[in-house]
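Ticket #4471: structure export looks truncated?
Reporter: QA, pipeline team
Priority: medium

Steps to reproduce: submit the single chain below to the structure queue and open the exported record.
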Amino acid sequence: MNHRLARKSIAVLGGVLSIWLFPLVGAAAESGDAKQNALSKDEIADGWIQLFDGETLFGWSPGSKADWKVADGVISVTSGKPGLLHTNSEFSDFVLKVDFRAPKETNSGIFLRTPAVPKSPTVDCYEANIADPSISKFPTGSLVGRKKGTVEKFSTDWQTYEIRVEGNHFTLKLDGAVVCDYTDPKPLGRGFIGLQYNTGNAEFRNVKLKPLGLKDLFNGRDLTGWRLYPGKPTIATVTKEGDLNVKIGSGQVESEEKFGDFTLQTEVICNAKNVNSGIFFRCIPGQLMNGYECQIENRFKDGDRTKPADFGTGAIYRRQAARRVVPDDFRWFHLTLIATGLHMAAWVDGYPVTDWTDPRPPDANPRNGSRVEPGTLAIQAHDKTTDVSLRFIRAAEMRPR
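Actual output as written to the record:
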């Protein structure tokens, strides 16, 4: 079977084993392998990312003072002020999977498209509830204040929510069965994912998300939608396999389309040792490599992947280094990049490597200050040794809040 044709129609990004399985990071769990806080090869191929790495709360922030902690691959909370532990990244359309467990007296929930401190699940967020029917008229399987689900009995065992959020349509599955289907006449556009502390203990694991609604930016046949920066030695070609190959710098291949707040997913391979490249975003159109840079460089020091030789693949170059170099040269890997407002984050093979908010004052030039205005994307050829290929380049602008 032709590898490329077999996978052309899917959104290809995903993840790797969690940080608490360090010796195996960089390799996916086998399909069907029930490893906790890990992505299977199928999930990687289908575009999933890990929101929880299995060991830390990297990428999350509390919206209230509660005792959120991680132990044995589980996020738990037992006391404090009611509120959320929320992602630092915002999401618009997605499928979310979360395992949860709680005793019968608990009232908790999974919040969708939420602000950090929501006011009401019927006004500024959506809440997939976790509660016994004796506690709430919107028990587990319901969207609080919006639609009651079909679950009649509360379980204290581990359960799995799979929640699809697409435009104004919400579908909740509990352990594989559809329990709530809701269409909002006035939908919110985007927001954080939140885990709630309200009353009682709650535990969460296997928090995974697949972005939806991305469109192809590269057709696999020619450079339609892209332009080569003039007067530079860079060569951009489409290979017989339908990949975009960029080599010999310095130079760039720039998109015609602009993106401001967006999600980007692609597959990348470095075709030579110690390749230096990157994907620039929110670029000033027509200028050479003048934007934020999500770096592509797989070197690391002293045999330690937590020590990038430069900033590392997935880094926001010169701003935040990747906390781990996940990929290797000569191997396809998956890259997800999300930017909303001043915040930006990247996942490599689904593993969260950067999570950064730009503290600088606003400036039209992103080299000098923060830029939120839409700009082009640019694939960098850093120097004469650069040889990098990309495929399945997909992105979407996020809807306003």
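Status: closed, not a bug. The export was complete when the record was re-opened. Leaving a note from the reviewer for reference: The chain has two helices and 26 strands.
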